[in-house]
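step 4 of 6: structure.
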Amino acid sequence: MDEAIVVGSLVKRYGSFAAVDGISFTVNKGEIFSLLGPNGAGKTTTIEILECIRSYTSGDARVLGYDVSKPRDAREIKKLIGVLPQDFSTFENLKVGEVVGFFAGLYGGKHEYDDILQSLDLSNDRNKKFDDLSGGMKQKVGIASAIVHEPEIVFLDEPTTGLDPGSRREVWKFITRLKERGKTIFLTTHYMEEAQLLSDHIGIMNRGKIAALDTPQRLIAQYGGCKKVELKLKDESLAAKISQDFETVRKNDKITVYIKNTRDLNRLMVETDYEDIEVMTPTLEDVFLKVVGINLEE
Amino acid sequence: MMKFLSVFSVTFKQWFRSPATVFFSILFPLVLLLIFGFVFAGIGSGTTSIYIQNQDVVNGTSTPLSSAYIDALNHTNVLDISLIPSGVDARSYAQNLSSNQFFSSYRILIIPPGFQNETLASAYAIRLNTTYDTLNSTLSDFAQFIPPNDTAIIQAGLGALKSYAANATVGNVTLTFLSDPSDTNALIARGIINSVAMAFNSQLVGGSSVINTQDQSLNARSLTSVDYYLPGLIAAFVMTNGIFGLTNITADLRKRGVIRRLLSTPLTKLDWILGNILTQVVIGLMLTLVMILFAFLVFRVVAIPDAFTLLAVAIGVVAFSGLGMIFGGLVKNVETSSALANVVAFPMMFLSGSFFPTGLYPPIIQSISYFIPLTYFSNALRSTLITKDMTGIVFNLGILSVIAMVFIGIGVWAIRWKEN
Ligand SMILES: Nc1ncnc2c1ncn2[C@@H]1O[C@H](COP(=O)(O)OP(=O)(O)OP(=O)(O)O)[C@@H](O)[C@H]1O
Ligand SMILES: [Mg+2]
């Protein structure tokens, strides 16, 4: 069995509102899978269903071959997964070492966590009260607690939200190392850069549905084309004509044009009167913009 | 380590390291004990009604000694005495007069036939023996001061005394005191009956006990008001800690997402509840011991905890944590469930007779107290700490255990261990 997680036509309704609206995907063992989506897309709902802490309305979800809806299976799943919830918080009067030790103790056996604290740069803070930590440090304690028992699958719900760029990079490195050690990682994020950099597969989620699902490269190739050109036109009336021939997005006084191949690029540059031009390689952001229709980074 | 012990360890640390929580769970009750102690010092516990049946009747009139005893009881001004005619069955007589047909919320003292005769006979025998011993030792210890003629006379007298003493037997007079084991007022009545009996004993025979009450567990010291409500206060605060402790902690942790994190671990609902209850039991025991120590230091109340005290506190904590869990589980909103717990907890404190003897209340409220779980908890504590009466301990702990099992059963079922 190479699949760590298999989800089919999963639906979660609150009353008549579908927070998760019939999604299907597969996560392979040993890969990093990301759900990328705006606020309220249904990422947390999905991840919590997989963690066996939230019920669902219909469909099917399996983790390591176990059915999340069966209490007996859920018990097995909980032994094999590690979880960082969104906005991690814990007993605020405990010290960092005590928190991580407590979570280690819940899985039986002995679990060393000195290395983990070290690699998350928490060694010097192990005797600090959780309450006295900065937001970023708290988040790192949450990550340490999620992996202290060497789980097979690690669920990280927005692991880097609220971290400064330096810490964020540190966490990325940490996640990459987890993958190298054979862990399967399921993460949610609204950072394009994070998803693109880390993920083997990305599901773009919006309004409870998965709008696109593939490797980052293929998503970019499919939705972003080969290049994107940002033009500032001399004559605004040209915009309409360009939009007829190419996929475009208007942004203030500029127009972004997505180009499928180099021949088109040449044609555009020769035929258009522009004041300013910038030719770029498309990123996941462009994919997201097209698939979801909103720009998250703004 | 078993998982519930990990839960105990973190929840106890979490509690202990939070000064505000420690204050409200332990220091606040102490402050209240202090206030109660000073406000009610000297006021006593009001009057307590009691039926007395004097069976020591000769030719239709009560013997002088038994009348004197009843008079003495009356003069304490604490007992409100009604007499039962000597020929009737005291129990059914009192039952018929009692405002409450269902519970025996009355107390009966029975003075046995021959109370005067036997008391006097015993006193006579004791006095004879004492006199004989005194004279006899005087004679042998101080022979040189006594003229030989007189020695012979005294010896003849001693011989006569000895033969009188041989015919007089030292007996016991037993007063019978009937009360319901759950009746808090009975303690006060019995304390007074015993003290007056002690006074009679020392008047008549210089200290030897002739008049006994059937239930001898109470020592010479009579009850003070602090004696009365120390166990009540402990019970009330162990109860509030129990009801609010587990529920509020869980609600707060749930709000902050701490529980959600635990849901995805192998920790079970039962581990969580067990660990938390263990924490509450330890807090309850700490509270109990601190209160007892404090009461001794400030009010000289001697309440000695024993194994039953610890057991009572543990069972009480389980019962009231269960009740708290029921509130927390059935009412999802934290504020509402707290309010509900308040609405239930505070009336319980007063209706249960934890603070004041229920005898001071109207009869209807007195019978309500029998349906209040706290009644059995504070009675159990009062029995283990103050009166040391085994019947009361077994009776109240038994009922409390049943309550605990029911509450905790429903509570475990009511607590949610999953997100919606
Ligand atoms: N208990 C609930 N009752 C009703 N609606 C809910 C509940 N939990 C979540 N929702 C709704 O479900 C939708 C999806 O929420 P979810 O938390 O899964 O989004 P998300 O993708 O994780 O968003 P974010 O990026 O802000 O974390 C939201 O519209 C939310 O309001
Ligand atoms: Mg979320």
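step 5 of 6: annotate
 - Residues A 14, 19, 37, 39-45, 86, 190; B 420 surround adenosine-5'-triphosphate (ligand 1) (CB under 6 Å).
 - The first strand of chain B starts at residue 48 and ends at 54.
step 6 of 6: archive
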